[in-house]
C-alpha cells in the first residue's frame, strides 16, 4: 500500500491536476486565479519534493513541469476574456418588468450555482495559501547556510541521484534537531538507463536496484575509526533490525577532524578495519540495504565536533558543487 501511494503521488496526482485543468472552466477572474494558484503550487510542490527515480522515472518530472506550464498558459490566455464578473445586461426601454422578473429568477438560482462557485474559489485560494509555505521551504532548502567541506564523491561509473539532501527538513529527511550529526546527510541512488532506480516500477528486490553492490570509495584521506559488517541486508522493504543495528553496516572515517559516515553498506563487504589509514579513492566496501533502510542506497554524511563535544553535521561539496534532493551527479 505504501508503494502504491508513493507512485500515485508522483504519477497519478499530476494527471488528476491535468484532468481538472482540462475540465474546469472558471467563470470569473477570481476563480481563474484561485484554480491556477492551487494547480501551480501543487505541481511545484510535487516537482521539487518528488523522489522521481523511486516513484516513477527521473524524466517523468518533466511531464509535471509541462503540465505546470500548461496551467500558466491557460491562465494568461483566459484572463483577458474574463471580466470582473459584473456582466448584468442593461434593460431596454419598456422592458423593465421583464428584466425585474429575470433578475428575481437569477437571484433564486444564486444559492444553487453562484454560492457554490464562490465556495470552490475560496477553498482553492485557501489551499493555495497553505501550499505556498512548503513550496518556499523546498526552494530555500536548496542552498546551504554554512561553509561546506570539500570531498570526493564516493561512487563511480554511473549517474547518481540525490534522493534526500538540503538545508531543511522539507527537502532533507535527516535535517532534525534530534539527529544533529545527520543535518546535511545525503541519500544516494543510482539511475538505470530509463531514469529509474530499479529495473521496473514495482521491483523491490535488492538485485533490481542499480546501486546495490556498487563499490564505495573513500571521499577523503584519513583514518578508519569504526566499521560494522555483520548485519544482513534487508529483503525488499522489510526492516526487521535491532535498534543497535539501525545504521546497518558502515564505515566511519576521521579526515582531519571531519567525521565521515558511509552507512547501509552490503553485508560482509566492508574492506577496511579500525585504525587503518586510507587515501582518497581507496575502496571501503559496497552499497547494500542493511539497517533502517527500505531500499538499497548510500547514506553519506560529514560532521565535526563542537566545543561541547556534540557532533554536528556540515555541508559537503564535490568539485565546488553542493548537492541537494533532485540533483544528478555523473561520474565516469
Overall description:
32% of the residues lie in helices and 20% in strands. It has 332 residues and is of the alpha+beta class. The strands form three sheets. Strands 2, 3, 5, 6, 7, 8, 10, 11 and 14 form a nine-stranded antiparallel β-sheet that branches. The chain has a three-stranded mixed β-sheet with strand order 1-12-13, with no helix packed on it. β6 (249-255) and β7 (258-265) form a beta hairpin. α2 packs parallel to α6 (114-140). The chain is elongated, with a radius of gyration of 27 Å. The mean pLDDT is 89. The chain crosses the membrane at residues 6-24, 31-52, 58-76, 118-136. Keywords: Membrane, Transmembrane, Transmembrane helix. This is M23 peptidase domain protein.
Task: Chart the SSEs and their pairings.
Blueprint: H1 2-23, H2 29-49, H3 52-55, H4 61-78, H5 96-109, H6 114-140, E1 149-151, E2 158-164, E3 186-190, E4 215-217, E5 222-228, E6 249-255, E7 258-265, E8 277-278, E9 283-286, E10 298-305, E11 311-313, E12 316-318, E13 321-322, E14 328-331
Parallel strand pairs: 1-12
Antiparallel strand pairs: 2-3, 2-14, 3-10, 4-9, 5-6, 5-8, 6-7, 7-10, 10-11, 12-13
Helix pairs in contact: 1-2, 1-4, 2-4, 2-6
Protein name: M23 peptidase domain protein
Transmembrane segments: 6-24, 31-52, 58-76, 118-136
GO molecular function: metalloendopeptidase activity
